[in-house]
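[audit] Reproducing an earlier prediction to check determinism. Same input, same settings, fresh worker. If the tokens differ from the archived copy the diff job will pick it up downstream; this log only records the rerun itself.
[audit] input (354 residues):
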Amino acid sequence: MAGKSRSEQRTGLLNGFAAYGMWGLVPLFWPLMKPAGAVEILAHRMVWSLAVVGIVLLAMRRWSWAGELLRQPRKLALITVAAAVITVNWGVYIWAVNSGHVVEASLGYFINPLVTIAMGVLLLKERLRPVQWAAVGVGAAAVLVLTIGYGQPPWISLCLAFSFATYGLVKKKVNLGGLESLAAESAIQFLPALVYLLWLGSRGDATFTTQGPGHAALLAATGVVTAVPLICFGAAAIRVPLSTLGLLQYMAPVFQFLLGILYFHEAMPAERWAGFALVWLALSLLTFDALRAARRGARALREAARAAGAATAAVDTVPVPGGVAGVAGVAAGTAGAVAGAVVSAGPAGSPGTS
């Protein structure tokens, strides 16, 4: 059993590395789409994503959720919002990469956890621990330093961070699986994207049919580039702890940052290094605090299990009529109190915490 568990965790880790690795290397893909513009690439991504996800769901025979979703107008409205927000995120990212702003785009995903925490405080009334407040403060200082360094606010980074944080917040409310959610969002995106592509073609400005079969194949591959990392992420999410996924998520912006400097040769003056250093300090504080909270939670759960076991043993050895119910009640109360402490000690703003 333990061997199977280790095998499952190994499979999960490999899928996690694959997902975040592909997301980290995706800046190499978007420039291959030129001379197509960012909006045309975005429209193809929407159209082909639905095709790829539809094939996957058909092969897996996972369609029951669609009927249930259609009977829930509130969820449909939230998915529409999610589709709109992720459209902005995708469009800005593609434009940023193809316009020579890979480093600034990577910054958006570095500061995304800080923005998510800030939104949790402002919108969900979540409470932060002191270390988390310190991380948010350092992150705000980093944005100020980068604003001075760029001569203007790093709007690409901020747009990516806030759009993705909003997307995460909406997805939390929808509570739908990753693959199913992408299918629903792509279905909403599909018609406007298709209409735009047809309009572009009617003007003679579409590159899909004018730049050769290789270019057309690359545009069609945007659906695969969107769906495959998500499928790998889904396989990882059910096999490895969230704390591990939380650490793996930094792979993507690290790869993007390194590509921006080493491959695309983007400038990094001293003030930008200072801003990034502050962001990394803030993320280090968040990671330290999350790992410490996870250790405390695991320890509290072990203590609860031991308390429950000790109470059960006491029940077996105390021959007092009516005492069984009393001792069992004490054990249940102890376990419930400890479990409550674990929940309250969990990292504010983390997935699944409201």
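[audit] rerun output stored. Observation attached for the diff report: The radius of gyration is 24 Å.
[audit] end
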